[in-house]
Write a structure and sequence with these properties.
The protein is an alpha/beta fold. It has 10 helices and 6 strands, in the order βαβαβαβαβαβααααα.
Length: 216
């Protein structure tokens, strides 16, 4: 069985050590490096090309958001999990749009960390329940303020299936295989979904899905 190679980036040594202990309690999981600031995190990610990067948002020398952006560009195969004390929508939105596939709160239980790393390593998304609730509450509030209906309800049954698969991290080719349709048809569904929901990229789809409680 191949190992899951993980990079842990946090500016507190005790936090890093705690994360390492939890992660390496799982069979086949190994922390290949630790980083105490954003610049070191990027360099380790480039040099080691880990499978998963756990990145604290509040990092010295280079903040976690910018580090995520650079790692996404320079180590594209890595799956990115943001770690933060803050559950507000602004932080979550910035993290996802910087490449994060998941967002975990620092006060989460050990089991949530394991679940989060497992999910992102499998190409799925993960958001702490408290984060998902904040996004959902804010989404409902904005709809009420604007007095508009939820555009998600305008999607067809097939479009909703495609929407969820995209939000879970599947590519057009994977969506096509799972739904037994052609890649061209999958791309067409994606385009229609984005048009109907006024979304502009995959990050927007993920955020929308979390707000709807469709992915977690």
């Amino acid at each position: 069985m191949s190992s899951l190679r993980i990079l842990v980036a946090d500016d507190h040594r005790l936090v890093r050590q705690g994360l390492r202990k939890i992660l390496e309690s799982q069979a086949g999981w190994v922390v290949v490096a630790e980083a105490g600031d954003g610049r070191d995190a990027v360099q380790h990610a480039v040099d080691l090309q880990p499978d998963v990067v756990i990145m604290d948002i509040a990092m010295p020398r280079l903040n976690g958001i910018e580090a995520l952006k650079q790692i996404e560009r320079r180590a594209p195969s890595a799956r990115l999990l943001a770690l933060s004390m803050y559950a507000d929508e602004a932080y979550v939105t910035r993290a996802v749009r910087s490449g994060a596939h998941g967002y975990l709160l620092k006060d989460s239980a050990d089991a949530d960390l394991i679940q989060a790393v497992t999910a992102v390593s499998e190409g799925k998304s993960f958001f702490s329940p408290a984060v998902a609730k904040v996004l959902l509450d804010e989404y409902v509030r904005q709809l009420a303020e604007r007095g508009i209906a939820d555009r998600y309800e305008t999607l067809s049954e097939r479009e909703r299936e495609v929407f969820q698969l995209i939000a879970e991290g599947h590519s057009n080719k994977q969506v096509a295989a799972l739904l037994h349709i052609s890649p061209t048809t999958a791309e067409t569904h994606r385009a229609r979904i984005m048009e109907k929901l006024d979304l502009h990229n995959t990050a927007d789809i993920v955020l929308c899905a979390v707000r709807k409680g469709i992915v977690h």
